[in-house]
Amino acid sequence: MSLPKTEQEWKLKLNPEQFRILRKKGTEMAGTGEYNKHQPDHGIYECAGCAAPLCNLIVVVGGLVTFFDAFPGAVSRHEDVSEIINGMTGNSILRSFGRIRTEITCTNCGGHLGHVFKGEGYGHPTDERQLSFRLIISIKFNESMPAEDKMNPKF
């Protein structure tokens, strides 16, 4: 699949909210979206920008889509230096409680997926979670999944 190369091509491929989040590093309100209360327990979550597989399980923490383990090589990590700010400007806060955040992006298309949070005590071996946004992930059901489960995923 050929990826868009220009901002205009991305605008044609994505809806306005997806473009704002994936390409402009925007955020979305907690507690919104199709995965807020219903998380299928089968399938693969993909990047809405390029359909690259990201992970196979999400959870909602504080009303936001979170995953603990991305597929190897699916996401890239970067120190979030998108803005030097005092407080809040636009949609991005550079420093969170005195720490510089780590941004995660789709390795395939470079789309902004969210941020990594560490040391929150969720009992996961890495002691971190990767916050993402429901508008920029989609689910692809496993081909081996029974047809009735694809039509009525377990929520």
From TrEMBL:
Keywords: Metal-binding, Oxidoreductase, Zinc. One of its GO terms (molecular function) is metal ion binding. GO terms for biological process: protein repair; response to oxidative stress. Pfam families: SelR (PF01641). Residues 7-142 form the MsrB domain. Coiled coil: none annotated. The keyword Cell division does not apply. Gene3D superfamilies: Peptide methionine sulfoxide reductase (2.170.150.20). Its cofactor is Zn(2+). It comes from the Eukaryota. Belongs to the MsrB Met sulfoxide reductase family. This is MsrB domain-containing protein. It comes from Puccinia sorghi. The lineage of its organism: Eukaryota, Fungi, Dikarya, Basidiomycota, Pucciniomycotina.
